[in-house]
Amino acid sequence: MPRSNSLPVFVFTACACSTFSLHAQGSPFQTPGMPLVKQPVAGQGDGKADGQSAGQSTRFSSEFNPAISFALDGLLTHADFDGDEDGFELELRSGEIGINAWVDPRAWAYGIVVFAEDEVALEEGAVHFTGLGGHRVLRAGRFFVDFGKQMQAHEHELRTIERPAVLREYLGAELAGDGVQFDDWHSLGDETVLRYSIGVFHSLLGEVEEEAGSPFAVDSELKELDELGYTARLTAFTEVGDAGTLQLGASARLIPDFGFELDNGASAEGLDNSVLGLDLTYGWADETNTRRFTAGLEWLFDAGDNGAAVNDSGTPLDPSDDTIDTFDETVNGYYGYVDYAWNQQQSAGIQHSWLELPEPGEPTLSELDVYYTHNLSEFGRLRLGLTFVDAESGADGMIAALQYTNVIGAHGHGVNF
Amino acid sequence: MRLDRLLLRAAAFLLLALSAGASEKLRVVTTLPDLADIVRQVGGARVDVNALVKGTENQHAVVAKPSMLIALSRADVFVQIGLSLESSWVPGLLENARNPRIAPGKPGFVNGSDGWPALDVPASLSRQGGDLHPHGNPHFNLSPRAGRHLAARILAALVANDPAGRSEYEAAHARYALALDAAEARWAKAAERLRGVAVATYHQEFDYLARECGLVIVGTVELKPGIPPTPAHVIGLVDAMRVRGARLVLTGAWSNTRQVAQVAEQAQGRVVELPHAVTNAQGSDTWIGMMDQIHTKLLEALDSLPRGP
Ligand SMILES: [Zn+2]
């Protein structure tokens, strides 16, 4: 059976730095052969002390240091799939260091470095420019795309242990791009906000998780304007009665030009892909803001060239003359959920995701998630999740997971819409 | 109608609309309804004020709504409590509302806790001390002295943002100060009976109140602000209540949980749900009314306890 790959599986790119040093500001001691430079010793005191002693800010003062945060996401899972070995896995899924600060009166910047799967990568790094007046924001750099209600968040921030299956399959477990995004909002009356965003990115393919021998997605390094990736989102957020909110949205991710390649050099070029999504979210909170109910639905359509498989019709078992078959049937899928928090600490929910895979015959995949979340404090969280997988073209199974997430230091929740 | 006459009418209408705009009220948005009430008392007819949260809500964790964003984007003056009470939701709203009139540092941004001597300011910051009170106890809206402090802060802010209204604001402030004199005298009288009464609370939100009226807080049901209790902590609290004769557990509407009831039951006492902010309910719909109600409820609770041995 040919190994196939749907398009947008995201993999962390390795960066040259294999160790991450927290002490990047200078050496506190002198080694032989080093030029003698008289400097205050890093870490000697806080900015105030420096300021008092020297009367000036120095490069070791902390007044202008950015806010720092650190997030840990640990996972204990037990997977049990038909025909597969089952067993436990304990992993630190990710460790994340974030910094952010204003860089001038009209712009702030942030960076998020993630350690995951034994690699360190700059997952996001962007400047938000707010000097355009009104509510306009122009952001530039590397950041998560604005698509639907969940793609903007990092994995450890999700309501569930993993992103819903339909998002993972059509867009990727995480989808960041290097590019520019403009967004703005307007009020309609006193209780409705209309927001839109438009993004242009060098590439929105993500990286294909390279399964040996299967086609991987590529695009050119130098591009014409009509070969760049684009995102767009339009959403209305309004109030329903005294205690409810309702949000409607439409999102698009367009990749006008990309290709697939095989290790043997075979390629399929001039391909394009579009993913469109519609979302609907309802939220309710009681008058003490303690009991909260949330229900959401997001429907996606994946159109154009959305997958590829090896064609082994040449010499059997000889990969050197293999070619690529691409798939271009429009497929669709959804996820829907209801979450209920009955006090400050405890909440539970159920989520169902169903989708057609972009393979011949469009086999379906569905996942049912049941999860319980316990907030130990505002910054520590324990979650228990069960995922039941029903795959038409693969193994059925169940994954049980216990997740512990902790966020230390500065982090803001902002307004997520 | 001839065209020039039509144009004249349109111009007159426009002028009228513009002059109406110029005499528009000062738009004030506050976080707590307590602040909104005091703005109303001092600002009178010159201000149009609304509060972002209801008095029944957990003020530490508020869900942002579109109306909040819109109100902030249109406001001339924004008043918050500060001391990190609203830190989980106000900065995000202000950032998205991007209203230069109420940006921190501008005259339209008013931090109610400026100049207020906060209790329990941590000597060093660590989450060992819990999540929610990193700059000291922010619940000073429940101090009987808060009205006077906030009224002075709000008077200064209204004058700074609307100098033409100075004499009106000062006159209204003077009237409110008289009402506060009378109210503070009532609360001082109530305090004579409350002095020395031992109580427990769910959250550290009645500490300023206790300091002023002499209640002795023997412990909180929460382990630390924002950290729920462990079973051992509950046992320790109940012991402390028994030893020190504390039979009232004070709580707000947002924190009146089963655990609070359990603690009260085990300590052979009772739960007293007090307003923790101004609400829409009759009696507690002004700050002075709310403080009156708190004192009345405390005295009633005290009277309802069987006389101890
Ligand atoms: Zn508190």
Level-2 CATH architecture of chain A: Beta Barrel
| Strand order of the biggest β-sheet of chain A | 2-3-4-5-6-7-8-10-11-12-13-16-17-18-19-20
CATH topology of the largest domain in chain B: Rossmann fold
The biggest sheet of chain A amounts to:
16 strands, antiparallel, barrel
Q: How many individual domains of chain B?
A: 2
Assign the CATH superfamily of chain A: Porin
Percent of residues in beta strands of chain B: 5-15%
Structure characterization notes:
- The complex is a heterodimer of chains A (417) and B (309).
- With 417 residues, chain A is mainly beta.
- Chain A has a single domain, classed as Beta Barrel (Porin), CATH 2.40.160.
- Chain A is 3% helix and 53% strand.
- Chain B contains ten helices and eight strands.
- Chain B has a four-stranded parallel β-sheet with strand order 2-1-3-4, sandwiched between helices. A four-stranded parallel β-sheet of chain B has the order 6-5-7-8, with helices on both faces.
- In chain B, helix 3 crosses helix 4.
- The longest helix of chain B has 29 residues.
- The complex binds zinc ion.
- Zinc ion binds next to loops of chain B.
Note the main attributes of this structure.
heterodimer, A: Porin, 2 helices, 3% helix, B: 309 residues, alpha/beta, Rossmann fold, 2 domains, 4-stranded parallel sheet, 8 strands
Briefly, what is this?
The complex is a heterodimer of chains A (417) and B (309). Chain A is mainly beta and 417 residues long.
Question: Which secondary structure elements does this structure contain, and how are they paired or packed?
Answer:
The complex is a heterodimer of chains A (417) and B (309).
Chain A: E1 4-6, H1 47-54, E2 67-81, E3 87-104, E4 107-116, E5 119-129, E6 137-144, H2 165-170, E7 176-188, E8 192-201, E9 216-218, E10 229-240, E11 244-261, E12 267-285, E13 292-304, E14 307-311, E15 323-327, E16 331-341, E17 346-356, E18 364-375, E19 380-391, E20 397-409
Antiparallel strand pairs in A: 1-14, 2-3, 2-20, 3-4, 4-5, 5-6, 6-7, 7-8, 8-10, 9-11, 10-11, 11-12, 12-13, 13-16, 14-15, 16-17, 17-18, 18-19, 19-20
Chain B: H1 3-22, E1 26-30, H2 33-43, E2 47-51, H3 66-74, E3 77-80, H4 90-97, E4 109-111, H5 146-161, H6 166-194, E5 198-201, H7 207-213, E6 216-220, H8 231-244, E7 248-251, H9 258-266, E8 270-273, H10 287-304
Helix pairs in contact in B: 2-5, 3-4, 5-6, 6-10
Bound molecules: zinc ion.
Zinc ion is lined by residues 60, 132-133, 139, 203, 205, 225 of chain B.
